[in-house]
User: What shape does this take?
Amino acid sequence: DGDNFSFRTSNSRETAYSRDYDRLYQLLEFERDNGYILWVLGPAVTFDQDSRNAMTHLIEMGYVDALFAGNALATHDLESHFFNTALGQDIYSKENKSLGHYHHIETINRARSCGSLEILIEKYKITDGIVSSCIKNDIPMVLAGSIRDDGPLPGVYADVYSAQDALRVHTKKATTIICLATQLHTIATGNMTPSYQVVNGIVRPVYFYTVDISEFVVNKLKDRGSLSSKSIITNIQDFVVNLQRNLS
Assistant: This one.
């Protein structure tokens, strides 16, 4: 019944997302008590002080049931605790610190000397950040490794098929998935996520959000067959902060 020609029919940097945010707030409030919320995080979440704190608060508030990431997310989150930097750059002022490029290596060495992230958290009494909050609240983290990883941290899956098996444990249960600024992990998660779940005998959809500043990245998932995904094109650090403030 609509016109054959119309403007702005696909998502772009110019798309209005106010209604999408409101729906997401309502969804997450429902899912916290009735679903299984899975997050897929790129390291950019930890590159900013406010977004790192906001993600930590979302975990503490019960809006995270499982978390997928790579070696980098966990490394730079822990680096932020030890040095207040991520890849050597101050996470608040964005100032590059002298010899800061060694910070993530020092962080990895401390973790590997402890043998596990749990022991690292306990030994250094780390109470801030995403990794610490997940461990304290018994939120499972699946850290899937890459051939380019430094270290990696203990607990990171070095074998891709073992990582897939660990990821599927949670994609089989997920009812809402939110992917932030990580193209490859997003596509991998999308490819192994069912389009629906049966909860208490009732068929319900799986809500899949992909958030990135790049139009190419959010559209790539749809090109790979995940047609039910909802894309939001924005800076993911602003996205996480906005989400946490409105859910508080």
Summary: The chain has a mean pLDDT of 93.
